[in-house]
Amino acid sequence: MGFSKMGYKWPTVGLVDEENPWVSYMRKQTMRKNNCINLVVTSAPGKGKSWSLLSQFCMIDPDFDINEQCVFKAKKLIKTFQEGKLKKGKPFMFDEAGVDASSAKWQSEINQALSLFYQTNRALNHIFGLSLPYLSFLSKSVRKLMNCHWRAEGYTRDNLTIIKPFVLEFNDELDRFYRKRLLVRLKDHSYTYCNELKLPKPPENIVKEYERMKSEFTNELYQSLSDKIDMKEKLENIKGKINITVPQQEVLELLKEGKTSEEVRQLTGRKYVVEITNMIKRMQSHGVKIQENQSKDHTVTYVVDDSMVL
Asked: What is the pTM of this model?
């Protein structure tokens, strides 16, 4: 029945010796059909999202340069779009996108950038892949522009990454997605579905550089998180503190040493004692705890609690 007929409706590719069908499909879409590939790979951590992209892209582009064709940060991705660094037919990946997508602000900005890129750069015939834990990290408007979805499902005993690949088709009238398995035309002209890919480990030099880049990215994330925690703690410590002027701070330090108003006047070079007493009253009015302490000889010193002074 239907396989021969379904070939007209279904995404279809001819089997090429020693080439996985999805390599053939991506090349066909970008080089022969003047189209582009917008691929999203989803899975839980450690299931092979990144390795699947690296493996596939190295098979498509033997000259794949991970330093030029892979980014981890949304900001660098947007800069890549702006500077036109994506080359015609060249694969490009945004890895660990979910890590950098933890805020609503990020999701808004990156969704806008992806939407603009997908809608205005089709002529590049690009092959663009990004990894995310969930499709929901992408806005609906961007999901509509994705035309491929892979689910990474872990590894075989031989360390091959298991992928469930689908072509996405969005029906605007029904407002719904259809996930289609790639139909492969065999040498005898029969057809079969590509239900699963088992992708080999990426080249060793690519893996080594990828791990270095990922480690650098992760360390920067930890440092950024640490800086944010430090800043939050500093703000918490500052909250409720009393800010006083430099002259007031000078007077306060002398009062803490047990100096009298007259002694403070002399040490600070003031002309009148009333200047010191007025300064004490201003600090008290702002919440600084300063109490008079009169000795038996009627000498007045001060007890100061400056724990709330910034």
From this structure: 0.70
